[in-house]
Amino acid sequence: LSSGLHSVCGSWSRPLEVSSVVLKLKCGQKKSLTRHRVFCLCCGVTHSSENRTVEWTRPGLDPDYVFVYRNKKFDPTNQHPSFKERVELKDSQMKDGDVSVTLKNVTFTDTGIYECRVAQGQTKAPELINITHLRVSAGECVFITTLR
């Protein structure tokens, strides 16, 4: 391997330095949609909380909310219309910190950047956990790149 390049789970990653913050970029991680065009946007936290807020957003949309869970329930108030009845928590109990969501009926228009934010308790602002770039291409393949 060349200097600074590492293999992570079968994909290549290169540490990027931005103002003393090191991000690890996973390139070319490839996942397939199920035959029902369902895809999981993965996100997890290490700490558990009974009172957790989870926000999935897609910057550039207005409103940009894909999915919001607060006060122990799904909150559809500001959800973008294109995601209505298509997104749900992968695990409704959020066991082991799994705050992933399942996106149903995925199409080319779902291509974009998705951000997962989580807040523990009601007084804290949601904190960015990861950024996922979703690209839907011909043959129903989905390519994702996640920064954590």
What report would you give on this structure?
- This protein is mainly beta and 148 residues long.
- The chain has one domain: Immunoglobulin-like (Sandwich).
- It is 0% helix and 49% strand.
- It has no helices and 13 strands.
- Strands 4-13-12-11-6-7-8 form a seven-stranded antiparallel beta sheet, with no helix packed on it.
- The protein is globular, with a radius of gyration of 16 Å.
- The N terminus is likely disordered.
Q: At the third CATH level, what is the topology name?
A: Immunoglobulin-like
Backbone shape? globular
Give the amount of beta strand, in percent. over 45%
Assigned CATH architecture: Sandwich
* H-E order: EEEEEEEEEEEEE
Largest sheet: 7 strands, antiparallel
Which spans of ≥5 residues are poorly predicted at pLDDT below 50? Answer: 1-28
**Termini Cα gap:** 23 Å
Task: Report the C-alpha radius of gyration, rounded.
Answer: 16 Å
CATH superfamily: Immunoglobulins
For the largest beta sheet, what order do the strands appear in spatially? Answer: 4-13-12-11-6-7-8
Determine the structural class based on helices, strands and strand pairing.
Answer: mainly beta
What is the mean pLDDT?
76
- Total helices: the number is 0
GO molecular function: signaling receptor binding
Organism: Mastacembelus armatus
Subcellular location: Membrane
Domain Ig-like: 15-132
List the helices and strands and how they pair.
Blueprint: E1 6-8, E2 11-18, E3 21-27, E4 29-32, E5 39-41, E6 52-57, E7 65-70, E8 73-74, E9 87-89, E10 101-103, E11 112-120, E12 127-137, E13 141-147
Antiparallel strand pairs: 1-2, 2-3, 4-13, 5-10, 6-7, 6-11, 7-8, 9-10, 11-12, 12-13
GO biological process, one term: regulation of cytokine production
InterPro entries: Ig-like_dom, Ig-like_dom_sf, Ig-like_fold, Ig_V-set, IgSF_BTN/MOG
Organism: Mastacembelus armatus (zig-zag eel)
